[in-house]
């Protein structure tokens, strides 16, 4: 999940796997798979960076867990 900020400065978490698309109108409109949407303060590039950073963290954790000692 990624942390985003609504227009009223309220922070919330969103499951990035449920995002269908993002519009720039000029603020960012995050449209979910169920057609709900959120107007957020982050730019589209910032949202993409947050998703990439989250995915990298998940992959690193998975890599740490699956490393085996082959001595």
Mean residue pLDDT: 90
Residues in helix, %: 25-40%
Radius of gyration: 15 Å
What amount of the residues lies in strands? 25-35%
Instruction: Kindly report how far apart the N and C termini lie.
Output: 37 Å
Structural class: alpha+beta
The biggest beta sheet is recorded as: 3 strands, antiparallel
Biggest sheet strand line-up: 3-4-5
Quaternary arrangement of the chains shown? single chain
Total helices: the number is 1
Order of helices and strands: EEEEEH
Number of strands: 5
Shape: elongated
Poorly predicted ranges: none
Description:
32% of the residues lie in helices and 32% in strands. It contains 1 helix and 5 strands; from the N terminus they run βββββα. The protein has one helix at 44-66, and strands spanning 2-5, 11-14, 19-24, 28-32, 37-40. It has a 3-stranded antiparallel sheet, with no helix packed on it. The chain has a two-stranded antiparallel sheet with strand order 1-2. The radius of gyration is 15 Å and the shape is elongated.
Short summary:
The protein is 32% helix and 32% strand. The protein contains 1 helix and 5 strands. It has a 3-stranded antiparallel β-sheet with strand order 3-4-5, with no helix packed on it.
């Amino acid at each position: 999940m990624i942390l985003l900020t609504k227009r009223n400065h309220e922070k919330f978490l969103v499951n990035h796997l449920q995002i269908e698309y993002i519009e720039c109108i000029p603020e960012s409109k995050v449209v979910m798979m169920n057609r709900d949407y959120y107007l957020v303060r982050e730019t589209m590039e910032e949202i993409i960076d947050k998703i990439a950073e989250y995915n990298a963290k998940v992959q690193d954790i998975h890599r740490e867990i699956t490393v085996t000692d082959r001595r």
